[in-house]
Amino acid sequence: MIGISVYIGLEEYPQKENEAYIRLAHRLGIRHIFTSAHIPEMHASYIDELKEILTLTTELNMYVSLDLSKEVSNRIDLNNYNVHTLRLDYGFSNGEIVELSTCSTYNIELNASTLNEQRLISLIKMGLNIEQVSVSHNYYPKRYTGLDYKTFNQKNEYYKQHGLTIKAFIPSQFGKRGPIYEGLPTVERHRSLNLTIAIQELVQANVDLIYFGDAYASEQELIEAINLRTDVIAFQVKLADKISDLEYSIVKQRHVNRLDESQYFKRSSRYRCTDQTIEPHNTTERKQYSVTIDNKHYKRYQGELQIIKKDLEADPKVNVVGTLLNCEYLLDCLKPGMPFEFNIVKKDDDL
């Protein structure tokens, strides 16, 4: 599920443009909005802007996750608006968090990036209503401060053991929020990564709701994110020169990873060529992340496609037809029996 972020009280985000962005998202089918009520750079009139934004989102029946401190919660009556989630940040004690989870109608959101096992267990023992609680990760404006993907994934596995909904952020490559303008990802490697790869990595790490942290994401980015299928892993591949039309057609097919997976490569179970001939070419060393297709010298295996997991020697029976890009985590996510396909990269700016 995809959401957007809207920022109030900042000169670069006039209210009319915020409202237009919200209406665009609504038109595209997006129903989830994140906004923050305690960014240090906000000007004094941010409360008025917040009220206007909440009035609009209530009118459009959109779900708002409001990041707020205790001080802000005392300045606005949220009962007048369609606020679905309160992301509790500074100033809330464990007792207040437990009370809100049991006595309020809001979903209570905790900071997934800084919450640890000890504190969560303590909150549960104090009576936390876990069914009213979700977790959302931070976004990180400063380069090289975002989370490591493996650490991020490990945290999420623990949260899922408790049945928690998990939320995280991806950056826009079109409109980046100031004052740093380096993107607002949760995971550091996503700061400049292809959008479809970033989303898939979050989905594979058990993220339920993905917000564009930056504003304003372009309409094209929003549409691409909404339409991305998450039931099949899509790898980026850069094709070798002069592959045959038959090899190209094999690459473009939907594949399924074999149930009896080899330790050396992922094997497609979907295609072998019996009525056409694949001539040997580019039978070079098979580097990790190479995409290969068996040629006519492999007899009945001709046409079988593999993704190489470990460096292997050249084989005159195997053509190297491409190389995967940005795949080190997604390839591990491709389990036996799972479908996969390829998005062909033609230009460097597609990376």
UniProtKB/TrEMBL annotation:
The organism's place on the tree of life at top rank: Bacteria
Family matches, as Pfam families: MupG_C, MupG_N
Domain annotation 6-phospho-N-acetylmuramidase C-terminal: ranges: 234-343
UniProt name for this protein: Outer surface protein
Domain 6-phospho-N-acetylmuramidase N-terminal: 2-224
InterPro entries noted in UniProt: Aldolase_TIM (IPR013785), Cyclophilin-like_dom_sf (IPR029000), GH (IPR017853), MupG (IPR008589), MupG_C (IPR043894), MupG_N (IPR043797)
